[in-house]
Design brief:
The chain is α+β, with helices and mostly antiparallel strands. The chain has two helices and two strands, in the order ββαα. The chain has a domain of 31 residues.
């Protein structure tokens, strides 16, 4: 029998700590605030480039 470890929309996962480009750590998935994680292939990908531009345009809305 096969099982999957993929996350599904709305599913909770254990907090993960990442090192930011600025050098400080950020814990994603920590309780207390709403967060979003966007996974893209990179700015070389035309589809991802469009998604990144849309996310950037909505940055202030996400922050509020």
């Amino acid at each position: 029998m096969h099982t999957t470890t993929k996350l599904h929309p709305g599913q909770r996962f254990a907090p993960v700590t990442f090192r930011r480009l600025e050098g400080d750590d950020h814990t994603f998935g920590a309780p207390g605030s709403w967060q979003a994680l966007f996974v893209v292939r990179g700015q070389h990908c035309p589809i991802c480039k469009t998604y990144l531009a849309g996310i950037e345009q909505r940055r202030d809305a996400f922050a509020s």
